[in-house]
């Protein structure tokens, strides 16, 4: 059974989106319409997300880490101080960008690009420390049940909307098998759909269980299988003598009707409508 890793998947999603943001910011036509405000807001949204992520780690993971491996926790605290300074610089650059005069926009864009990459550089080192120092320490000093409890507590703290946002941020960066396993677990953990108000109401209105009406009118009783007016039997006054079809050599009349209704049509063929066919003709339409 694989080890419980509290960092891996979410960090993969963060790396992918940080790299995408840096690439798109550097390539953006900042002079177009509201492009400056759009790129600035994307950078501000990223620092908000990373600060929120750090709070989650402090609340749900690093408390356990401080209890079991305080030296690793101290190293992470020092990293957070360095990250906060880089976040502040990026925020200041981003807020200034939309009000920059047109002639100064290219330089302001590049300054924002450099500030973002400084954040990425510091953040990658932080992720590496968590994944190669903090997580191995937790594996060594904490039980699997304790690590599982961390996951459970975090999930319980998220609203359905927040949980969906978490998946959207993370899943595109993960391998297919991991994505499938996460989605399978999400579906299995979802509450069952509410039961219908009346189960027997659904049964009564099911098309398969509705009584069939004859063409004689809505008040007529459905034909019984043994009735003389059952499809496949001739009306009163006509002969019941079996006849042979002129082209197929198949029997027609009552016995052929019973065979068709039972699904045991000779030849066993199926037409394009999925019904069995007899001698190339579609079987009864009331199947």
How would you describe this structure to a colleague?
The protein is globular, with a radius of gyration of 35 Å. 60% of the residues lie in helices and 4% in strands. A hairpin with a 2-residue loop joins strand 4 and strand 5 (281-282). It starts with 7 loop residues before the first helix and ends in a 5-residue tail after the last strand. The chain is mainly α and 287 residues long.
Number of helices, where a helix is a run of at least 4 consecutive DSSP H or I residues: 10
Instruction: State the name of the first-level CATH class of the domain at 8-157.
Output: Mainly Alpha
- The CATH topology of the domain at 8-157: Four Helix Bundle (Hemerythrin (Met), subunit A)
Q: Could you list the spans in which at least 5 consecutive residues all have pLDDT below 50?
A: 197-211, 222-230, 242-287
Cross-sheet strand order for the largest sheet = 3-4-5
Cα shape: globular
Secondary-structure element string: HHHHHHHHHEEHEEE
Radius of gyration computed on alpha carbons: 35 Å
Residue-averaged pLDDT: 78
Number of DSSP-assigned strands: 5
Percent range for helical residues? 55-70%
Q: What is the terminal-to-terminal distance?
A: 51 Å
CATH superfamily of the domain at 8-157: nmb1532 protein domain like
Class per helix and strand makeup: mainly alpha
**Percent of residues in β-strands:** under 5%
Write the CATH architecture name of the domain at 8-157.
Answer: Up-down Bundle
Biggest sheet architecture:
3 strands, antiparallel
């Amino acid at each position: 059974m694989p080890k419980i890793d509290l960092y891996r998947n979410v960090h993969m999603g963060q790396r992918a989106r940080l790299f995408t943001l840096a690439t798109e910011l550097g390539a953006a036509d900042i002079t177009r319409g509201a492009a400056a405000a759009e790129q600035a807001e994307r950078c501000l949204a990223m620092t908000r997300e990373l600060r929120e992520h750090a709070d989650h780690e402090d609340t749900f993971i690093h408390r356990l880490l401080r209890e079991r491996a305080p030296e690793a926790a101290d190293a992470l605290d020092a990293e957070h101080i360095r990250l906060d300074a880089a976040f502040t610089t990026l925020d200041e650059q981003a807020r200034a960008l939309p009000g920059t005069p047109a002639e100064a926009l290219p330089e302001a864009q590049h300054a924002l690009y450099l500030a973002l990459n400084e954040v990425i550089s510091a953040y990658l080192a932080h992720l590496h420390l968590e994944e190669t120092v903090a997580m191995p320490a937790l594996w060594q000093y904490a039980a699997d049940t304790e690590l599982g409890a961390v996951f459970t507590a975090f999930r319980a703290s998220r609203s359905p909307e927040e949980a969906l946002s978490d998946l959207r941020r993370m899943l595109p960066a993960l391998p297919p098998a991991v994505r499938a396993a996460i989605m399978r677990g999400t579906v299995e953990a979802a509450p069952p759909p509410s039961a219908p108000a009346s189960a027997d109401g659904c049964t009564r209105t099911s098309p398969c269980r509705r009584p069939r009406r004859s063409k004689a009118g809505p008040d007529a009783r459905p034909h019984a299988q043994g009735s003389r007016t059952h499809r496949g039997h001739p009306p009163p006054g006509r002969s019941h003598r079996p006849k042979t079809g002129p082209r197929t050599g198949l029997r027609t009349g009552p016995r052929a009707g019973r065979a068709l209704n039972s699904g045991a049509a000779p030849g066993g063929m199926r037409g394009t409508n999925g019904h069995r066919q007899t001698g190339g003709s579609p079987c009864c339409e009331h199947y």
